[in-house]
Amino acid sequence: MGSPPRHIAIIMDGNGRWAERRGLPRIEGHRQGAESVRQVTRAARAIGVGRLTLYAFSEQNWGRPLAEVAALMQLLRDYLTDERAEIMDNNIRLTTLGNTERLPEYVKGPLDKLMTDSSENDGMELCLALSYGGREEITAAVQRIAERVASGDLDPSAINPSVLQDTIAVEDVDLIIRTSGEQRLSNFLLWQSAYAELYFADCLWPEFGKAELLEALSAFQRRARRFGLVA
Ligand code: IPE
Ligand code: IPE
Ligand code: MG
């Protein structure tokens, strides 16, 4: 296989349906989904991916029933405890995207701690998109740019895509994978996906593991990326 994509991002969808098909509460699907996170992170690290961004919770997901949101937050806290050793032992740097100020303290505390403790690791960046929305991210960047204009630090005629790129400060994504058969972005990495390759897997997230990741990577290797140019 050729060199792996530098930045892979995954829309981990279908946990609820996985559970419902088994007559289980949706949260059991989320619990099983955490196991896929483990496997896929390990595989991505072994393959040599530079950055893996996982869409774990969208800004819009706050609108789900309170019990489901609470269960997801508890799973997140458990994940941060259970995966701590794996992350540190594998030289992984944990980062986040999104409005993490909205997370409850029992998540925010361990999250900030693991981010700080892993900040010197340089094996792979594992970025969790939490309380994340692409439109919200772009809007926040526009607000910061407007402040610079208002303070006289930036001329409006100097605003170009590079200014937005530098303000958002998240590198472009090479490959976006979405499970569960849905073929949409659902407010994920809207700016960064301009030239991303999209890969849709029919299986549900709890069914996605190392083999499925390798299949997505092999599909990616067969794509011809042109970035608007001629081949
Ligand atoms: C993805 O699975 C996990 C989150 C959005 C937190 P879903 O919960 O969206 O599962 P489906 O799409 O309802 O099956
Ligand atoms: C996207 O999945 C968000 C995450 C995977 C965290 P959703 O299930 O929330 O998206 P829609 O509602 O199907 O568009
Ligand atoms: Mg879904």
Characterization of the model:
Helix 2 packs parallel to helix 3 (66-82) and helix 6 (134-150) packs across helix 7. This protein is of the alpha/beta class. A six-stranded parallel sheet has the order 3-4-2-1-5-6, with helices on both faces. The longest helix has 22 residues, at 26-47. The protein has helices at residues 15-20, 26-47, 66-82, 84-89, 105-117, 134-150, 161-168, 210-221, and strands at 7-11, 51-58, 92-97, 124-132, 175-178, 197-200. It has one domain (7-221): 3-Layer(aba) Sandwich (Undecaprenyl pyrophosphate synthetase). The model has no long low-confidence stretch (mean pLDDT 97). Helices cover 44% and strands 16% of the residues. Residues 12-17, 57, 61, 72, 180 line the site of one 3-methylbut-3-enyl trihydrogen diphosphate.
